[in-house]
Design brief:
The protein is α+β, with helices and mostly antiparallel strands. It contains 6 helices and 24 strands. The strands form 8 sheets. The chain has a 6-stranded antiparallel barrel. Helix 1 runs antiparallel to helix 5. It is flat and about 110 Å long. One of its GO terms (biological process) is bacterial-type flagellum-dependent cell motility. Assembles around the rod to form the L-ring and probably protects the motor/basal body from shearing forces during rotation. This is Flagellar P-ring protein.
Length: 366
């Protein structure tokens, strides 16, 4: 119920003029300007006895031996079983236009049976892209995402101590070849494709910078022909375009998260005239077996006699609550709120209204 009241408050803010236009940079991406995923396999050292057990993680021993040999330490035929190292997978995203020498954040996750990466340090790890080339090298102290403590008879874990991050932990060694200054035909890709929003973006750009510069291609793409303005710098042109404001349009949606019981409804959600009634039916079955046994030294045998108690209870219903047809969001929220039920029961009601064909919105259940 509190969630529905919160939605009603949001709607009142929107009616007061809080729904401001949105910049194009927050609605769309430039086609071709994107990041690249990087991945590497490395070793975290300096753990306080919470690393991999080499008996169960032989790959940790292999990478550790390879690292020491590269550093000039011969460990052939040596029996070493340290508990302060852990094999990890290192991931990062190489941003668009990242230059050699710039630094990026990395994420670290254990792949063996290490208990925690707290206090560890990632040793120099090359990061590869999908083409197999090395684009960055990561190294640094790991900031673990949780904590773990244990004693002789109990243990406690908070968060996920086997994952962590290294802020600015990787240095870019190779740049992605991409010359933006030579591009004359650009394309804007809407993050949420919609014909109305795309048409508004096209009109706003042409109104601001000149007719014929932008052309609507489909619901998610607007083509930009910079040659209409003569010889211009594409980067400077996009700097002007991305700050133009547009009022976006979105399809009516109802989004439900079963895990948390969250319900989110868009402003354009409509419900046809429908009557709703809700009640709870509870079935309880109890088993209370009895044991019958003979007196001491008397003939006979012990027998278990089953006893079952079953009952069905039905809580008083709330009667029918009517929601008028073609209601606005505020009227929908008020109508559903009048039922006086919990958000998780509201999820079941919305499913039933959708199944009845009275909910005119895209219904998404996560």
């Amino acid at each position: 119920m509190r969630i529905l009241c919160f939605l009603l408050a949001l709607l009142s803010f929107a009616q007061m003029g809080w729904a401001a236009p949105v910049r194009i940079k927050d609605l769309a991406n430039i086609d071709g300007v994107r990041g690249n995923d990087l991945v590497g396999y490395g070793l975290v050292v300096g753990l306080s006895g919470s690393g991999d057990s080499l008996r169960n993680s032989p790959f940790t021993e292999e990478i550790m031996a390879g690292l020491l040999e590269r550093l000039g330490v011969n460990v052939t035929d040596e029996a070493f079983r340290p508990k302060n190292v852990a094999a990890v997978i290192v991931t990062a995203t190489l941003p668009a236009f990242a230059r050699a020498g710039s630094q990026i954040d990395v994420s670290v996750a254990a792949i063996g049976d290490a208990k925690s990466l707290l206090g560890g340090t990632l040793v120099m790890t090359p990061l590869n892209a999908a083409d197999g080339e090395i684009y960055a090298v990561a190294q640094g102290a790991v900031l673990a995402a949780g904590a773990e403590a244990s004693g002789a008879a109990a243990s406690v874990v908070q968060g996920v101590p086997t994952t962590g991050t290294i802020p600015s932990g990787a240095r870019v060694e190779r740049e992605v070849a991409f010359d933006f200054s030579q591009m004359t035909n650009l394309r804007l890709a809407l993050r949420n494709p919609d014909f109305t929003t795309a048409a508004r973006v096209e009109a706003a750009i042409n109104r601001k910078l000149g007719r014929g510069l932008a052309e609507l291609v489909d619901s998610g793409t607007i083509a930009i022909d910079s040659t209409v303005l003569g010889k211009v710098n594409p980067a400077r042109l996009m700097g002007q375009i991305e700050n133009i404001t547009v009022e976006p349009e979105a399809a009516a949606r109802v989004v439900i998260d079963h895990k948390s019981g969250t319900i989110v409804m868009g402003e354009d959600v409509r419900i046809s005239r429908v009557a709703v009634s809700q009640g709870n039916l509870t079935l309880r079955v109890r088993e209370a077996p009895m044991v019958s046994q003979p007196n001491p030294f008397a003939p006979g045998e012990t027998v278990v006699v089953p006893r079952t108690q079953a009952e069905i209870t039905q809580e008083p219903g709330i009667g029918f609550a009517e929601i008028s047809g073609e209601s606005s969001l505020s009227e929908v929220v008020s109508g559903l709120n009048a039922l006086g039920i919990r958000p998780r029961d509201m999820i079941d009601i919305l499913k039933a209204v959708h199944a009845a064909g009275a909910l005119h919105a895209e219904f998404i259940v996560n």
